[in-house]
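Tokens for chain A. Residues wanted.
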């Protein structure tokens, strides 16, 4: 029986920024291979040989070199290389390897070999080529693994209608649908305009008797965290516990960071304790999360311990250096941040300089920030909107109001993506600017900044509204509608809110 091709639809328009931020949570897991043998010595692998190839060299040359040294081409070595290349985004190399495997047949082929071939064919040559390949694969291998990979390939191209047709075919054939397919569907509908579709996807998941995976809940938690919806976050986590799905390090990391951003530090610390209990080995992504969290919580000894673990890894990523710099800077450990800055051996980019400039500006050390800005330009790094926004904050904190406003205008001239504008560092810097304007009673600029928070839902936090209220009090202006607007935005008034409202009422006209 051969699959009949379905009617083709145009790709669905998706929010690329949100999709990329969630995609890591829903990759298809790679089944363990019973033939995962390692014949090579320590530190050597087929994967490394492929990764070292120059641009024009074919993957087959690395495999021939491997065989020439007396090593057999085992399925385990091949799958290890494929998974590494996928992580590195080298899909063309991965396809070259799988095409060689199909030609040379160094071992008996199984469904997973064809699944890999299908995945990378669709990625490199498009879904039409993937469908054509599917029809040529022996019928005995057209099982649930291959169908799920075909559906995922369609979803990766944004072809939702086509993927739904294949899912319908799977139901007809009584083939189980992977929860990772539903994960991808959720991500494709995670933008604010399409989120109403997510409950329907979850209902269909239940109707298909597909149990949500921990990664499914991680995606739902991340969506709520990105919307700064603490109440929604709690609902998803409670549902997860009700379904008896065991949280992962990623789960607790999302929860801890979301509560830290919301300044609910006690709750955040509870989730950090859970991460420490269940973390396994030296997972760099978990260690990066802990670097961020210990900076928020002001725990210097724990931050030092975590940084020591990061430094013991075979390779320390540039991002880890930046996270450590920002975390030590957040808690006022300027000397320590500067030491780590000096340890960065690679050539420094605008992103590197922005990280250290932000530390100086937040601590009112404008002279060092200015010196670093000059060094940045001397090194050929172009300042961007983030650079100027940090410098504007430094000027305002140092009492240089006119210079701060001019610098802020320079930043506005630089383009900035929505992905950057909704990022936590950008929003926190914007809030510090709002506080600086509130301190001097500059209500006009405070209101301009507050508009950014409406767009990104950051205004769901009471402390953001309180800063705007302080600007009103300092400017001796009363807006009786502020409390109502605050509640409608999803923020809960606290004791500070009511105190500021009483002060503002004194300026009623």
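Reply:
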């Amino acid at each position: 029986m051969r699959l009949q091709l379905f009617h083709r639809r145009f790709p669905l328009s998706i929010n690329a920024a949100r999709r990329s931020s969630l995609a890591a949570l829903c990759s298809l897991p790679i089944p363990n291979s019973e033939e995962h043998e390692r014949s090579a010595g320590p530190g050597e692998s087929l994967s490394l040989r492929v990764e070292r190839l120059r641009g024009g060299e074919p993957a087959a040359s690395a495999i021939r070199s491997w065989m020439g040294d007396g090593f057999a081409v085992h399925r385990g070595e091949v799958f290890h290389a494929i998974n590494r290349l996928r992580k590195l985004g080298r899909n063309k190399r991965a396809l070259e390897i799988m095409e060689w495997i199909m030609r040379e047949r160094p071992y008996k082929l199984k469904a997973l070999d064809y699944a890999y071939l299908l995945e990378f064919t669709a990625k490199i040559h498009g879904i039409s080529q993937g469908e054509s390949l599917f029809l040529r694969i022996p019928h005995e291998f057209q099982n649930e693994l291959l169908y799920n990979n075909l559906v995922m390939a369609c979803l990766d191209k944004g072809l939702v209608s086509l993927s739904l047709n294949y899912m319908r075919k799977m139901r007809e054939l009584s083939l189980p649908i992977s929860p990772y397919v539903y994960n991808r569907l959720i991500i494709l509908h995670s933008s604010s305009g399409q989120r109403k579709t997510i409950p329907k996807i979850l209902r269909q998941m239940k109707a298909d008797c597909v149990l949500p995976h921990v990664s499914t809940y991680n995606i739902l938690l991340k969506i709520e965290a990105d919307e700064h919806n603490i109440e929604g976050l709690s609902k998803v986590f409670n549902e997860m516990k009700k379904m008896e799905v065991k949280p992962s390090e990623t789960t607790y990391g999302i929860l801890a960071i979301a509560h830290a951003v919301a300044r609910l530090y006690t709750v955040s610390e509870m989730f950090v304790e859970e991460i420490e209990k269940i973390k396994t080995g030296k997972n760099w992504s978990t260690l990066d999360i802990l670097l961020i969290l210990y900076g928020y919580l002001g725990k210097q000894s724990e931050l030092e311990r975590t940084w020591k673990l990061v430094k013991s890894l075979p390779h320390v990523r540039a991002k880890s250096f930046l996270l450590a710099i920002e975390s030590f800077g957040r808690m006022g450990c300027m000397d320590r941040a500067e030491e780590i800055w000096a340890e960065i051996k690679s050539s420094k980019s605008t992103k590197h300089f922005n990280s250290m400039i932000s530390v100086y500006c937040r601590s009112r050390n404008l002279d060092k920030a200015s010196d670093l800005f000059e060094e940045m330009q001397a090194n050929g790094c172009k300042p961007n909107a983030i650079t100027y926004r940090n410098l504007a904050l430094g000027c305002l904190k140092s009492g240089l109001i006119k210079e701060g406003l001019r610098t802020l205008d320079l930043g506005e001239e630089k383009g900035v993506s929505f992905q950057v504008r909704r990022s936590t560092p950008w929003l926190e810097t914007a809030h510090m600017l709002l506080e600086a304007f509130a301190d001097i009673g500059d209500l006009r600029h405070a209101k301009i900044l507050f508009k950014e928070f409406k767009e990104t839902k950051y205004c769901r936090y009471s402390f953001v509204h309180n800063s705007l209220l302080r600007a009103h009090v300092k400017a001796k202006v009363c807006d009786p509608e502020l409390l109502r607007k605050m509640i409608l935005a999803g923020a809960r008034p606290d004791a500070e809110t009511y105190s500021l409202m009483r002060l503002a009422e004194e300026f009623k006209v």
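DSSP finds 29 helices and no strands in the chain. Residues 279-346 form one domain.
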